[in-house]
Write a structure and sequence with these properties.
With 116 residues, the protein is an alpha+beta fold. It has four helices and three strands; from the N terminus they run H-H-E-H-H-E-E. It has one domain. A hairpin with a 2-residue loop joins strand 2 and strand 3 (101-106).
Length: 116
């Protein structure tokens, strides 16, 4: 971000609520608050992607992420439970894979052809 001189488009530096949520869900400790954490996380991701769509997204595609206690977790599957995210995510295409990280680029809006 610093070297590229671009603005961060998310209100948070990470999805820090998710590891605890995923571990609690996996353990079967679904309390009332967990559903609210899930809804808040999805709502903020969708709102941020809509308000200021980033040109590039780098996504950790490791299925068993270390900070999730190696529980199988996929960001896109989790967020795709919301149709607003699905509609927004269609605007991105994978352009590179670097180790276990996938790089997505926002597709540019297509302009209608000029008529001759």
């Amino acid at each position: 971000m610093t070297y590229a001189e671009v603005k961060w488009s998310s209100r948070a530096a990470s999805l820090w609520l998710l590891p605890g949520y995923v571990r609690a869900r996996q353990a079967g400790a679904m309390t009332v608050g967990l559903g609210e954490i899930e809804r808040y996380t999805i709502d903020t991701v969708v709102a941020d992607l809509t308000a200021m769509p980033p040109a590039v997204i780098v996504l950790d595609e490791r299925r068993k992420k270390p900070w999730y206690d190696r529980i199988d977790f996929d960001f896109i599957d989790f967020l795709s439970t919301d149709p607003r995210f699905v509609a927004t995510w269609r605007n991105y295409e994978r352009i590179a894979v670097v180790d276990e990280f996938h790089v997505y680029r926002r597709r540019l809006a297509r302009r209608p052809r000029d008529h001759w």
